[in-house]
Every structure is written in structure tokens, then in C-alpha cells.
Amino acid sequence: MEIAIRRFQEFHVLDVTGELDLYNAFRLKDAVEKMIARNVQFFIVNVRGVRFIDSSGVAALLSIRALLSAMGRELRIVNLPRNVQRVLELTRLLAFLPISASEIDAIESIEKKLGAAAGRN
To answer: Beta strand 11-20 with 2-8: parallel, antiparallel or unpaired?
Structure first.
């Protein structure tokens, strides 16, 4: 598995390619933890290049979601290939992850949420 990180304004995109499985799911969690240490607030995980995901990969995504949510940071998972979507459907976890169709949709979703939160203050 490879992880490339891009930045668009305050949004950080992690492009994940390869297999997100028992042998390397920890690498995605490590990358997110390093970004948290650098005070990154907005995470977009692009899984377009993920060829295979197993329960460890799903657990890594759920763990990242829980960690970022607890810290008040934003996560969106984008560009789900059919194989990844199918695993999330079969495990009934699709609804538990913040999924957007594309990076643009993810950015708009985060901005909308932040705007709504600002309106309440």
C-alpha cells in the first residue's frame, strides 16, 4: 500500500493505493496520527486506488473516524471503488463512515457543516 498526501487549502487528501489489509492498515493510521500532530483539521481519504480491503482495513477506517470525531476534526472518505463499497455494504458499515462521492463533494460537505456550526454560535 502507498499513501500520497496532497494539500488543497486547509484540506489534506490522503491518496491510498494498493491493498488496505492486515499487513499495512496500520500505515494509514500512522499517517493520520502524524498529521494530527501537525494540527491538520480536515482529512479526505481517497480510496480510488484501493484494490483490496479486509476487516483490518475497515477497522482502520473506523478507528480513524472515531479518533478524528473525538477531537472535533473532520474526515471524509471519497471515490469508493466497487470492491470497497461492497465490503462496507456486506459488513453493514457503510452508514457509519463519512463518505462523499468526490473530493469536491467532501470539501463542500465539510464547509457546509462548519458554516452551520458557525451559524449556531
So the answer is: antiparallel
